[in-house]
Amino acid sequence: KAYAAWLTKTVGHTYRLPSEVEWEYAARGGTGTAYWWGDRMARGNANCKECGDPWSDAAPANVGSFAANPYGLHDMNGNVWEWCSDWFEDDYYAKSPIEDPPGPMAGIHRVIRGGSFENSPVDMRSAHRFRALPSFRHCSLGFRVVRVP
User: Fold this and answer.
1) E strands, the chain, where?
2) Which of 90, 101, 102 is nearest to 129 (CA)?
């Protein structure tokens, strides 16, 4: 959030972290499959623990090392977990509106999505959700920002 605020001030456009719903929509790239490229992990599509050489559990790959999804976004699945602006609640989606759920108003953990180079393909599915304390820092955790029109 601090980086988005700095970027907003620096370039004159408004930036923020994506909501969890926005993140998943972007990751899917208009598809309904487990990954934007289909329902199975395929060699050469992402950086993860079981993605095959040279992608293992060693380190993040350079951005753009893999093909973009149909929305033109790179590395939504795998590489590094990405922070979302929403608070995490285990059963949130079971009791929330189907269309455009607003996310919990408070919590202890923030949502992270996408899986990382340290995770297996199941953790990289577009629908997979996980959480982290807002103070957590690790080389397998990053973020991307959304430019507000």
Assistant:
1) 15-16, 81-87, 110-113, 129-132, 141-142, 146-147
2) 90
Q: CA–CA separation, 51 vs 73, rounded Å?
A: 19
In whole angstroms, give the CA distance from residue 57 to residue 104.
32
The C-alpha atoms of residue 132 and residue 125 are separated, in whole angstroms, by 18
pLDDT in tens, 80-102: 999 999 999 998 888 888 787 88
Distance CA 84, CA 88 (A): 10
**Strand pairing partners for 129?**
113
Confidence of residue 57 (pLDDT cuts 50, 70, 90): low
- Write down the pTM of the prediction: 0.92
Q: Is the link from the previous residue into 54 a cis peptide, with omega within 30 of 0?
A: yes
Q: What b/e readout covers 100-116, taking b as 16+ CB neighbours within 10 angstroms?
A: eeebeeeeebbbbbbbb
- At 2-56, the pLDDT tens digits run 999 999 999 999 999 999 999 999 999 999 999 999 999 888 899 998 887 777 6
> Looking at residue 56, what is its pLDDT?
65
